[in-house]
Amino acid sequence: MSKDLYEILGVDRGAAEGDIKKAYRRLAMKYHPDRNKEAGAETKFKEIQGAYAILSDAGKKQQYDRFGTVDFGGAGGGPNPFEGFAGGGFGDIFNELFGGAGGNPFGGGEAGDPNAPRRGRDIQVSIPLELEEAVNGCVKKVSIAATGECDDCGGSGRTASSRTVTCRNCDGAGAVRKQVAFISIQETCRFCQGQGTMIKNPCPACKGQGRVRKRSTHEIKIPPGVGHGDEVPSGRSGEPGLNGGPPGRMFVQVNIKPHEIFERHQGDLYCQITIPFTTAALGGVIKVPTLEGSASAKIPPSFQPGQHIRLKGKGVLDYRSRNKGDLICKVAIETPRSLNARQKELLQELDESFAANSAKNTPAAADWLKKAKKFFAP
């Protein structure tokens, strides 16, 4: 093991004790075997445990910083920072930081007690919604695949011919000790799942586990005004716990689909409308779409590109703030196309009339021309 301990935890050599602990907590949660089933996660987790065991101890940390090794037997001194270190006791470190059975985010019990109650896994559900469904609220059906009680054996894992035998892998201890590099760590027996016993002639449907993967359909009530990414209460539990532990939780997250007209930002709605240049010049009243039907909006005379109009209270009721927003319309001004001869003639006359008093009729264009003249060829 030649990796730098600080590199393992992702902290600088001058990191404070609190920063080291925070880094350990974050990485331990990420790579804990109960949560991360990827190849190599278990080895990574043990490596993180070993690094923290040294850097969290002032004496060991001082020796490592000075000599690059932790040689408690006096025979070390090589480049291996773990040489002479026996390891062990890392479950206690984890429970100290995460609070044991009550605070362990993975539902595990105390170290060395594989039969302790374990909280069931949480279930994350994402529900796609149309904007109108999110604004008005609705009821959606979702299909969920999760672990649940075996219907064939009622969760017992047994049949009429089943009997209990001692697990041969752990000799009834429920746990085995495994040596990985410099670390000796106790693990729950994977054959009996920490029970110390196994079922002879188990239920064929669940293979003695009492739990099977199955699909179920649930109705979820979506309250009005939810936004993209909001979590809403489902009133349902996640997967059942182990050894009498509580069930996990079900998190329902809202995923709002893009809308063809509106964009939503909290309680406000945004849309783009297009008006002819004559309306922009003369002003007028136009129809604007809203989620509650059409509404009238007033365009003031001499309306300029880049301006917008706001319709108070025509947005949506925000799920979090419970305030209703506005509808903001970005206005595009369209220049006429395919002009006939008469229209071109009228526009030419209009343009000539503007030239007579350009500072008043087209002040922006007149100001630009004044600034640009010095760049024109004489």
TrEMBL record:
Needed co-factor(s): Zn(2+)
Domain J: 4-68
Tagged with keyword Metal-binding: yes
Location of region: Disordered: 220-246
Residue stretches of each CXXCXGXG motif repeat: 150-157, 167-174, 189-196, 203-210
Note on cofactor: Binds 2 Zn(2+) ions per monomer.
UniProt xrefs under InterPro entries: DnaJ, DnaJ_C, DnaJ_domain, DnaJ_domain_CS, HSP40/DnaJ_pept-bd, HSP_DnaJ_Cys-rich_dom, HSP_DnaJ_Cys-rich_dom_sf, J_dom_sf
Residue ranges covered by zinc fingers (CR-type): 137-215
Domain (CR-type): residue spans on this chain: 137-215
Binding site for Zn(2+) 1: C150, C153, C203, C206
Residues that bind Zn(2+) 2: C167, C170, C189, C192
Compartments, record wording: Cytoplasm
An annotated GO cellular component: cytoplasm
One GO MF term attached to the UniProt entry: unfolded protein binding
Keywords on record: Chaperone, Cytoplasm, DNA replication, Metal-binding, Repeat, Stress response, Zinc, Zinc-finger
Pfam families: DnaJ, DnaJ_C, DnaJ_CXXCXGXG
GO biological process, one term: protein refolding
HAMAP family per record: DnaJ (MF_01152)
Subunit structure: Homodimer.
Family, similarity comment: Belongs to the DnaJ family.
Domain remarks in the Swiss-Prot or TrEMBL record: The J domain is necessary and sufficient to stimulate DnaK ATPase activity. Zinc center 1 plays an important role in the autonomous, DnaK-independent chaperone activity of DnaJ. Zinc center 2 is essential for interaction with DnaK and for DnaJ activity.
UniProt function note: Participates actively in the response to hyperosmotic and heat shock by preventing the aggregation of stress-denatured proteins and by disaggregating proteins, also in an autonomous, DnaK-independent fashion. Unfolded proteins bind initially to DnaJ; upon interaction with the DnaJ-bound protein, DnaK hydrolyzes its bound ATP, resulting in the formation of a stable complex. GrpE releases ADP from DnaK; ATP binding to DnaK triggers the release of the substrate protein, thus completing the reaction cycle.
Protein's recorded name: Chaperone protein DnaJ
Species of provenance: Candidatus Amphirhobacter heronislandensis
Lineage: Bacteria, Pseudomonadati, Pseudomonadota, Gammaproteobacteria, Candidatus Tethybacterales
